[in-house]
Predict the 3D structure of the following.
Amino acid sequence: MAVPKRQFPDGFYWGAGTSAYQVEGNIYNTDWALAAEEGRVPRAGKSSDHYNYFEEDFDLAKELGHNAHRFSIEWARIEPEEGTFDHKEIEHYREVLKALRKRGLEPYVTLWHFTLPLWFSEKGGFERKDAPEIFARYCSFVMKELGDLFTHVSTMNEPNVYATHGWLYGAWPPFKQWRILGKKIGKEDGTSRRTQSSFLNIFRYFKVSDNLIRAHRQAYFEIKKVSPKAEVSVVKHVHYFYANKNPLNKLLARFMNYQQTTRFMNKVADSCDEIGLNFYRSTQFGDTRTHTYTDMGWKIVPEDIYGALMLLRQYKKPIFIAEAGLADANDVHRAEYIRVQVSSVWRAIQEGVDVRGHMYWSLLDNYEWALGYEKRFGLVEIDYQTLKRTPRPSAQVYQKICVENAVE
Ligand code: BGC
C-alpha cells in the first residue's frame, strides 16, 4: 500500500548550509588559522575552495532541488583590521548573494560562525566588556553594504557551543579549560592543544556567555536600525534531553534543557524575529535502546528533532532548521536519516509549530573544526586533491523531498 505523502506548507524553504571558514579556503587572519599555525588544530588550507567555486556549488544546490541556502560571512575578511573594512570582500559577498538570488535560492545569512578576526581575538575577543559594541559595529556595516540582498540574517551560530568548547573543554580557541579538583571537564582531549587549565575558567565562561547575549541583543538593534525589515535570528544548538518514566530522570531532563537551551533563549528571544535551530543530538535518561552511530560517534536519533522543536515552540517565533545532518562518509545512513528527520519536522508542524525552512548540514564536505577534514557531512562529496564535487546518492533522496515539498 502506498504511504500517503506528508505535505509541507507552501513556500517552505528547503536547502543546505555551509560556513565560511569550513568551506571557503585560504583564510589566514583568524584565531583558528593562528591555532593551526601553532599546531593546535588541523589546518583549513584551501578547503573546497568554495570562495572561487560558489557559482558551481550553487548550480549543484539548484539541481538538487533546493530553494534556499544558508552560509556565513567571514568577519576577518570584512574587517581585517579593527575599524577598517575591506570593500573588495564586500563585493565578493555581493556576488555570492546575487548568485543565490539568480538561481532562486533564498539566502539565510549568518554574520558570525565561530572564527574571530585575529585583531579581535588578540585583544580578548568575547571576554572583553566592549565586545558587544565591536560585534554590533561589524554587523551594522554588513547590513548597510549588503542588506538590500537578503532578509534572513542570524547574528551568531551556536553561541553556547562556542563558549563551552573555548572556555570549558579547551578544545577550540582560546583553549581555556575548566579544571575542577584537578579534573578536566568534557570528553574533548585538549592535552595536545596546550590548554590553559584553571578552575577560574568557569568565571570566564560565564562572562563570555553573558557577553554573547549582550552582543546578540546589541547587534539586533543595530541591524534593525539599518534594515527594519530584516528577519533577525540567533542560531541555537539544541541538544534535546528527555527521560523514561522515572520521575527523577524527568526532572534531570528538564534541568538539562533549561541549562543548555532555555536559560539562554529566555534572554534573547525578545530580540529575535525568528529562531534558527541546529539539531544533532539528544539524550534520553534511562535509555535502554540500542543505537547505531554516525562517524562522529553520535547516536542516530533524527526523530528527536521533534522534541527540540517542541522545546523552542514556547518562544512563539517562526523557526527554521539552520543545521541538521550527520557525518556518514559511506552514505549508508544519510538518506533514511533525512527522511525520518524531515517527517518529524512535519509532525511538529501538524502540532502547530511554525517551521518555515529546513537546511541540511552540510551542502559540501567541510572542515570539521578541531577534527579536520576526515568527517564527511556533505550532500556533495569533495575530493580534496582535485576539488571534484560529486553529489552522494542521499542527495537525490533529499532532492525528491525538496521538489515535492513533501515526504513519504
Ligand atoms: C556547527 C558546524 C559543525 C556541525 C557538525 C555545528 O555545531 O555549527 O559548524 O560543522 O555542528 O559538528
